Amino acid sequence: MSCPVAIALQYLLNALQLGSVYALIALGYSMVYGILTMINFAHGDIFMVGAYLAMWATLFLLGLPLNLPIIFIFLGSLLFTMTLTAALGVSIERLAYRPLRQAPKVSAVITALGVGLFLENFTLATIGPEPRQVPAIIPVQQYSWGGVAFTNVQLLILVVSLILMVLLDTLVRRTLTGMAMRAISYNRVIVPLMGVSVDRIISLTFAIGSAIAGAGGLLYGLAYPVLDPYMGIRIGWWAFIAAVVGGIGNIRGAVLGGYVLGTVEIFTPVLLASSTYRDSVAFSMLLILLIFKPTGLLGRPTVEKV
Amino acid sequence: MMALLEVTNISHTFGGLQALADFNVTLNDGDLVGLIGPNGAGKTTVFNLISGVYRPDQGRIVFAGQDITLWPSYRRMAAGMSRTFQNIRLFKDMSVLDNVRLGAFAHYTYSFWQIVGRTASFHLQERRLTQEALAMLARFGLAGSAQAPARNLSYGEQRRLEIARALISRPKLLLLDEPAAGMNQAETLELVALLRDLHREFALTIMLIEHHMGVVLDLCQRVQVLDFGSTIFAGNPQEAQQHPQVLEAYLGKEENGEHGHAIAEP
In Å, how far is A58's CA from the nearest CA of chain B? Predict the structure, then answer.
């Protein structure tokens, strides 16, 4: 580790790893906003629940006297986590947001904050405040390439995130379901007259967004193996900023924003020699961006018709 | 023979305003019926009640043998109904092709897991749908703009696209809300010919709201005339033009009892 380029690449790799997690969570904020123009402030806590679910699934599969292969444990945990977080997201929408569909937007946003508090405190009450250690299912192997060190876990996180993002992008851009999602964001009134059940599409959006946040929770646990009930707050806020920076409502924007925020978080302590300024850098960046490009990096301006 | 659509005594009020009172209509397979009347007579309200945008305060709507009075819109569309809108309601940022594909939504049945798994049946359905949509666009002379955003189309093309989108789901009943609005004479004539062909080609039952009397006279076998939410005439279009109450609704009452021979063509 001597060449400055190698050091920069090393940090960039770390930024990509963290950025992947932010991107996965940002996708959920962006999808829900795209379809309902509502910020689901409970989304960061769904990520937290996902991280805990992944931990339990892993512990359970490791505890079985079957000596399962690692890949099976990983995929099993991923499937379990994504299914349950999807169910959680759909239930939250059904019970908390749907009854407020016709109410002023602010009611739903305040309810979302309340749901977030509920998830945090429910976890606190049932699991307790002490941080939990995620078992290392994957024996870490370190590789080195041209002075840049990376691990198999880092690669796994990048690859799995990338697969999920490509799948989602394809779903939204190429399939009829994705088309219905985009159509609802343009005009919710006439979409039912195309034979589309708006409620079903909204449920599906919450299911997919929450499942991806759950996957983010599992991957986060692999890289940063300590969980606590409030972990969703800071990470959720950063992912929310990522979604806004990228252009909220835009799938590719959320991914871009995630990586931008990952870069900010990793490089701020390097350049400013202190991690204290991390949040102020991120939030200042958000403020400056919003002044010059209020719709985010990839967001398109809406034309207000008079 | 069982009627395709049977609307019995539906009424609707907005606040205290009676928008529609005791409206009745029966459409048999293959009918082409016009719904006319002055502005604000309640014509679009009829369409909104039939397509489920509003719920009627009273009355019953039976479509293809099923009581659909309380069904949500998307179920009615899936059951074989389609409509267009008085003010063009396309998804303007989406491509022309995607607008049409979306119209077929109810007929595509792949599940979430088939999408995630990207199964063969999912790919097959998506491909077949795209082909059908392209064929439909070709039928409407819009194939060349398939990839363009809908907002780039001319006004007349956007109207045609709305009809293409309504037809892709192969409806039994098509509700057309002022399809010729804003069209010039040549475009209107073209539209009339197109609608006549489509009526035959797709074995459609059509209900049409229109202000151009020429269009109504050319196309419709029957008309129903609304004024202030009440039906004032139902019968053949030629008679409607001579009917005193209809003339009064359009032209106002005249002191000496003389009025024009026909309702003015705009």
Answer: 23
